[in-house]
Design goal:
single chain, 146 residues, Nuclear Transport Factor 2, Chain: A, four-stranded antiparallel sheet, 3 helices
């Protein structure tokens, strides 16, 4: 009887620990996703090269590869159009989580202007980021606009 009770306590303890690991991962990834989204949503013509470096540093996998391949064209378009944007995360929530992969939905307001739209325009969007833990860091591996 005592052995069975100890076994049940041990199994329950293991489940509690696993839930704690996932909850910790979700909280860390949520913070990293918010920070990454702010980096992605802000375009300052004076800091464009640093922004591109920061986006690549905060990403991995497919998104990193696609962004890296298209960054020069995007950079040229942003400069040619004198684009500027300021984005803020209005709200965010974890959609799903495991210890090394977390999906986060973010609601973002972004004020945008360029030489074709000199008056600031407000863009409200939803973004779903897939965050993966790589070498102890939470990095964006996929970015979707559902």
């Amino acid at each position: 009887m005592i052995v069975a009770l100890l076994a049940v306590i041990g199994v329950e303890g293991w489940f509690v620990y696993q839930r704690h690991v996932v909850d910790t991962a979700a909280a860390e990834a949520l913070d990293a996703a918010k920070e990454f989204t702010v980096t992605l949503a802000n375009v300052d013509p004076e800091r464009i090269d640093q922004t591109f470096t920061d986006v690549l540093d905060g990403s991995t996998g497919t998104f990193h590869d696609l962004y890296s391949q298209s960054s020069e064209q995007l950079r040229e378009a942003l400069i040619a159009n004198e684009a500027a944007a300021h984005g803020t995360v209005i709200d965010a929530a974890v959609k799903s989580a495991s210890k090394d992969r977390v999906e986060v939905m973010l609601f973002v307001d972004q004020s945008v202007r360029n030489n074709k739209l000199p008056q600031v325009q407000l863009d409200r969007s939803r973004i779903v980021l897939t965050m993966e833990k790589v070498d102890g860091r939470w990095l964006a591996s996929d970015v979707e606009h559902p």
